[in-house]
Amino acid sequence: MAEKAYRYRFYPTTEQVLLLRQTLGCVRLIYNRALAERTQAWYERQERVGHAQTSSLLTTWKKDEELAFLNDVSSVPLQQGLRHLQSAFTNFFAGRTQYPTFKKKRNGGSAEFTRSAFCLKDGQVFLAKSDQPLKIRWSRPLPDGVEPSTVTVRLSPGGHWHLSLRFDDPRDLTLPESSNAVGLDMGITSLVTVSTGEKVANPTHLKRHHKRLRMAQKSLSRKVKGSRNRDKARRKVARIHQWITDSRQDHLHKLTTRLIRENQTIAVESLSVVNMVKNHKLARAISNAGWGELVRQLEYKAQWYGRSVVKIDKWFPSSKRCGSCGHVVDKLPLKIREWDCPSCGMHHDRDVNAARNILAAGLAVSVCGATVRPEESKSRKAGAMKQKPRS
Question: Of 115, 139, 161, 196, whose CB has the highest number of CB atoms within 10 Å?
């Protein structure tokens, strides 16, 4: 059983827009107030404030006359906002993320409703405090017999409303086992080069919309801060960014689904995209490619459909290693796309050779537990057998 979430576009009525915007504003207010309280308590008194204390503060805030409007919206999204803040602090203390930041109105916002705050009846979704169903564009049906556990309403910076239904999918989607295995080398000119020799072109979604985005951002910079015209210009820029994001996501979903359906094992590199974008000459192209999102989609789709994704070490010299004799050249600049091995004379296409080396390293890791470092080429299993038991 896998946990999934289906996202849909919906079109609220005027009354629903007022209620939803008020709900998002209250969630944002509670989140920011709780974050300020926890930060202030630590810096002034070295005191840690947890979820239980912020929940008690929420009850106190609701009794304040200046915050009486908090009672006009459902209490469930407010409590969920405090839980999300607690999760943000948990991830921060575990070293996975940075310190939580305040939510901003211009970024839209979201509100999460649990089972007690929504109703799914006759294919329609009713939210708390509203007696009208949401007008949802059902782009795909929910699986038969599932009951959503939460409903999340999101407002994008461009003004689009989306609804996410989270549920446990009981279906067995395991695909028939295949004998195919491929390695993937991710790049900029070719988004993905497959070990079979196939090269998937990079659509460069940002480049296609760059002129419109540049003109919209220039128009935004000329507007007076706080004016209605500036808000319209900001939403126009946000919509262009949304088009770019949606186009990139659509292409990556189609590509990863095809790779998962056709292959049993997929080997990829463990790229550190955060460090790679520090190269200012390639930062835009790397961010536009979406390498991290591609690997993420491959991993969760592999779990759904019974496939395996093997990630090799990021320091493995896949491009500089000859796939025929194993010779590793000292330097191979990015401008060199084809090269001849000085040891065996084999002619290589840089990307195809890298993809084949990634496949070989991935199969070694998955089959015998070998590493991709030359000094650690022996399998982990063999190393474990040689270890003597402690007396």
Answer: 161
